[in-house]
Every structure is written in C-alpha cells, then in structure tokens.
Specification:
This protein has about 375 residues and is α+β, with helices and mostly antiparallel strands. It folds into 2 domains: about 100 residues, Quinohemoprotein amine dehydrogenase alpha subunit, domain 2 (Lipocalin, Beta Barrel); about 230 residues, no CATH class. It is about 20% helix and about 35% strand. The protein is built from 6 helices and 22 strands.
Length: about 375
C-alpha cells in the first residue's frame, strides 16, 4: 500500500509539472518600456516531444527577425529564458490563473519590468513579414565608387563603421581617423600602419561612400572600395612589407571547438556586436572574427591558425583587463563587474577555452605592415 501511494504521488507530481508546461506553452506579449521608446515584445513558448521547453523571442517594433532562446527553465511558477544572441535574460512568475507572467528583462544592464499576458485572437499583435533579402554585389564586379563624402566629425560623435546601414549599399563611418580607414582597407591591426603623420590619428572624419555597382558589398569588396577612396581623396601612396610582430594566435583547444555553424545564407554579411563584457558574433568565419578582435579590442594583431572554414554563431562573456580597450572608443568599454566579484565572468583567454573550445595565445608571427609613403588631408567633396 505504501509503495502504491508513493507511486501515485510521483505520478501526480509529474502530471502537475506537465500541466504547468502545457499552460505556459503558446504566445505571450507585453511592452518593454525604455526611456526613449516602448518596444512590443512577443514570446512564443512550445514544448518538444521530450517535454523540454523552447522559446522564440520577437521585438516587433525593431525587427521581424525571430531570436531563438538558448535555454528555457520552468521551476514551479518561476520562468527563466536566456538568449545569448544579444545577452538577454527574461525572468518571471506565472500567475495562479496561468494568464499572465510578471517579470523583468535584462540585457547586460539594469533589469527592466516586462509583464506578459496571453493574448486572444482579437488582441494578438501581428508579427511583421520579414523584408526581402538584400541584393548582394556580384562577386566579379569591377569595384569602384560613385561618390564619396568626407567631412570633419563633430566632437560629440562616437566611432561607428557600417556596411549597408539603413538597407542601402553604402559604406559609412563616423568619427573615424585615417589610421582606422587604412586599417579597415587592409584588414590589419592599427599597429600595422607605419609612418603615418600625426593628424592621421588626431583628426577624425565622417565618411559616406556609395559604390558604383549595385548590391551590398562583402567585407572583402568593401575593403577594396575604401582603398580606392583613400587613394583618390587622401592621395594615399603606400606599400606592404612583412614584419615579425608580437601577435595573438587563435588555435583549436584540445581538438574540441564548441561552435554552432551558422544556418543562414553564407552570402550574408557577418554580424559583430559588443556589449559590456560580451561579444555577440553571427555568420562569421574565425578569420573574420580575428579581424574584429584586432580592430576593436586587442592591443596586438590577431591571426587565425585554426584551419576552420565554416561560418559560426557564438557569444563570448568575459571580464576585460586594462589592456583590452576599444581603441576607437574614447573611454573603452568596461566589463560588467570587477574581476573580484563572485559571479564575474572569466578573463577573455579563459572564456575562449571554456566557451568556444578555442585558444587565444601570445606568440610572434610574420604579418603584413602598411608603410605610408605619401598622404594628404582629404580633398573637397
């Protein structure tokens, strides 16, 4: 009798957990209130054949793009969802009537209220249709530019560099020194640009370039186009040499990379995001990731020695040290917590091994350096 009673209690507990999971499955919606705007949010929760919960997140006032949750846990009435793609976490409590979730949303900063309700067919928000994929520039296009606008930056501006901003095929930068333009055009570290006059670091520009070919250029094509603007508008003359320099090399650690292969079209541009103490990488080769690291974070060139050719999606959470600042950002980007904090993420080198299965190690290597032979301040628009 006792054993039968225990079995019945266990079955009842299991049934209750299953019912709770069924109750939380479906669509939920709520508004995230930010200082500058309100963002409508939709959360779609489903239960798989193995009873595990999955979730898809939408911020429909920003993009129709769905974001898959990396983990969904439900303990009693407490729900926690994490989305590594942009370092987001939702934590909430399911109401007793199973029709609302009182919760908070955090994304590398203070938590903000985000309360969700189950909509009816009449009150449910529509998810916008995704835009058509951008037309990409032909791989064999004769690269050049139709127009290039260069003007001094305003003091209050901060650095940015984008390809295809606003859906167009333009290349645009703000608060960008000449060194960074040469660095981008050649895919190198700032320290690999030699013999540059002092104004090449001190004077900053906003640059907008419209290619003379249709379609969104790849990074390799954008580098060629920027190089032609440098030659035409800055009268840049330079040459390359090989030089052995201290570098960081990325290698596979213990033959066990922990990387998710990108599932979207390989022709899309890679995405590189930075938040406090995290790097959010999408559709990137390791070689492109190395270029991102050396351009924005590391004090040395970074070289890819993994031999990996696929495109990957991954996120790295780490605590920066004093040397890991962003050279194009005046105050750098501090980490989320002091390294002494109990819950602080590891340093970048440890994070590489634990989170990516890769190793970032100090060594020396022969790399290209760009030696500036002649350059002038930009000609008038």
């Amino acid at each position: 009798m006792t054993n039968r009673l225990v079995s019945m209690l266990a079955l009842a507990a299991l049934s209750g957990g299953t019912l709770l999971a069924q109750d939380i499955a479906g669509a939920w919606q709520g508004t995230l209130k930010l200082p500058a705007q309100d963002l409508r949010t939709i959360l779609q929760i489903s239960r798989g054949p193995d009873e595990t919960l999955k979730a898809v997140f939408y911020s429909i006032d920003q993009t129709p793009m769905p974001f898959n949750a990396n983990s969904v846990t439900l303990k009693g009435s407490s729900l926690k969802i994490t989305i590594n793609q942009f370092n987001g976490t939702f934590e909430g409590t399911l109401s007793s009537d199973r029709n609302s979730i009182s919760g908070t949303w955090s994304q590398g900063g203070p938590a903000l209220p985000l309360n969700l309700v189950k909509p009816t067919p009449e009150t449910a928000w529509a998810i916008p249709d995704p835009p058509p994929p951008p037309k990409v520039m032909k791989a064999d296009a004769e690269l050049g530019f139709e127009v290039a606008t260069i003007k001094p930056s305003r003091p209050e501006e901060t650095f940015s560099l984008a390809i295809g901003r606003g859906g167009a095929n333009t290349l645009s930068t703000t608060s960008t020194p000449l060194r960074t333009l040469i660095q981008f055009a050649n895919g190198i570290h700032p320290a690999q640009v030699l013999n540059l006059p002092s104004w090449g670091d001190s004077e900053k520009y906003d640059v907008t370039i419209k290619p003379d070919q249709e379609g969104l250029p790849s990074i390799a094509q954008a580098r060629v186009i920027v190089g032609k603007v440098l030659a035409d508008r800055f009268r840049l003359v330079s040459h390359k040499e090989k030089k052995e320099l201290p570098v960081y090399a990325i290698t596979v650690w213990k033959d066990m990379p922990k990387l998710d292969v990108h599932e979207g079209p390989a022709s899309n541009l890679p995405g590189f995001g930075m938040q406090r103490g995290s790097l959010i990488i999408r559709n990137s080769t390791i070689a492109e990731f190395a270029g991102f690291l050396q351009a924005n974070i590391m004090e040395r060139p970074v070289v890819d020695q993994t031999g990996l050719k696929d495109r990957f999606d991954f996120t790295v959470k780490y605590t920066p040290d004093a040397s890991q600042v962003l050279p194009n950002f005046p105050n750098g980007m501090p980490g989320p917590a002091p390294a002494s904090a109990a819950d602080a993420p590891p340093d970048l080198f440890t994070a590489f091994q634990q989170q990516l299965g890769l190793k970032l190690e100090s060594t020396k290597a022969s790399v290209d350096v760009v030696i500036v032979d002649k350059v002038e301040k930009p000609s008038d628009n």
